[in-house]
Q: What sequence folds into this?
């Protein structure tokens, strides 16, 4: 809460400074904008509550359908779809099946090793992995350029700084997502506007979210719809990749430009 | 559609031109992208510092940096480079952008002819009639007299032309 209250104050000061410049020619008459009122505490609390609930889940599985706008040079927007099935056991087990219109991949993570599998060709790369899902997400993104879909699910409730980026927050109203009653919230940040529909009741899960990228031409949009199962307790076997005769080990290129030619060799 | 196909042909031609010197394979659809794609997460990840905005401005100039990995906006700029075919030395960036994403708009990848494949060059699809061979725990694709070693770049499989393992 301390961060939240300081941030609007800073904005207010910045705004006043700008206003001072603008008012050089004529006396300032307009009142300072009421920035702090743009954040509805109820919306921020709902986000906190959802984050705490997600953080407290020992395990879950979900199926998500998402759509990502791709902006063409002409300005035309093309929507690309994918389906993601996640199985998670905190803190260090994750299995993901990602099917896009272009490719299918599976990810295995058992707390020790990370495997990326292409089921159609049987190609797989297995590399040592850090302990912890969040550490894994950072590593595969930084090192290999792989962004796990739905990473927000592992950041909400964990990243204390995230709330400070919100410049406006509003309660939109109630809605129904796939038959489930949900509360609809809208947030603004510097470069994105985003909305989230959080299930009503004792299990405040995100059922849908939308992100609009404001600092790109065409303001492309990302939409994800999620259906949850928080009762599952997946077995170890789900998370550990065991190659068969149809699988073929390959390397995975390390992304760092200074080591552009290096590879993580198959185990 | 007409415009698309013309564009595609032009890009295909350009791609093949580059491919002959072993630099890159471009894809018609990927080349047409260029306005970027939507950010897919609200949170930037714990490893990104709080001054991302400042760093992102720096990234627009295509400097190397750590934050790029978490930064969608950078990719947009890389795409522009692809479209303009400005700088062939940015191969790795093109690779990062066009081929690593989950759902990059790759239609039909440009097939690179099996002729004059230079060792170390990279393609995203193999010529016809290849056979998979595993030698010493390493997977190869043998296509005529040319050997390719598949590897992941992001979530995409690419093929590096290598010397025969025999």
A:
């Amino acid at each position: 809460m301390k961060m939240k209250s300081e941030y609007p104050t800073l904005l207010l000061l910045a705004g006043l400074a700008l206003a001072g410049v603008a008012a050089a020619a004529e006396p300032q008459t307009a009142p300072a904008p009421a920035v702090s009122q743009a954040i509805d505490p109820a919306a921020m609390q709902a986000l906190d509550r959802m984050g705490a609930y997600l953080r407290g889940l020992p395990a879950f599985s979900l199926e998500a359908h998402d759509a990502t706008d791709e902006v063409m040079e002409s300005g035309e927007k093309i929507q690309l779809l994918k389906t993601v099935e996640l199985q998670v056991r905190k803190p260090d087990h994750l299995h993901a099946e990602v099917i896009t219109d272009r490719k299918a991949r599976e990810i295995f993570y058992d707390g020790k090793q990370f495997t990326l599998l292409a089921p159609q060709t049987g190609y797989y790369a297995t590399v040592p992995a850090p302990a912890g899902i969040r550490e894994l997400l950072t590593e595969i993104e930084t090192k290999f350029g792989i962004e796990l879909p739905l990473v927000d699910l592992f950041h909400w409730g964990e990243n204390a700084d995230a709330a400070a980026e919100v410049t406006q927050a509003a309660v939109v109203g109630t809605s129904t997502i796939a038959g489930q009653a949900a509360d609809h919230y809208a947030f603004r940040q510097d470069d994105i506007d985003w909305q989230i529909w959080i299930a009503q009741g004792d299990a405040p899960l995100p059922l849908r979210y939308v992100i609009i990228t404001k600092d790109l031409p065409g303001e492309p949009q990302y939409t994800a719809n999620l259906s949850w199962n928080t009762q599952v307790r997946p077995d170890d076997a789900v998370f550990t990749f065991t190659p068969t005769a149809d699988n073929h080990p390959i390397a995975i290129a390390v992304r760092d430009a200074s080591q552009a030619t290096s590879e993580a060799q198959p185990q | 559609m007409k415009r698309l196909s013309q564009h595609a042909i032009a890009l295909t031609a350009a791609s093949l031109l580059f491919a002959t010197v072993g630099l890159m394979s471009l894809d018609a659809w990927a080349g047409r992208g260029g306005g970027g794609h939507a950010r897919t997460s609200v949170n930037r990840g714990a490893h990104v510092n709080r001054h991302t905005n400042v760093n992102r401005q720096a990234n627009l100039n295509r400097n190397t940096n750590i934050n790029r990995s978490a930064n969608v906006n950078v990719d947009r700029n890389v795409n522009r480079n692809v479209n303009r075919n400005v700088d062939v030395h940015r191969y790795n960036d093109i690779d990062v952008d066009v081929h690593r994403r989950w759902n990059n708009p790759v239609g039909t990848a440009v097939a690179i002819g099996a002729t004059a494949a230079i060792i170390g060059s990279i393609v995203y699809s193999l010529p016809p009639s290849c056979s998979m061979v595993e030698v010493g725990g390493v997977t190869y694709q043998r296509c005529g007299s040319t050997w390719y070693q598949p590897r992941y770049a992001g979530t995409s499989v690419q093929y590096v032309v290598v010397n025969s393992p025999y």
Observations:
- Chain A has a mean pLDDT of 87.
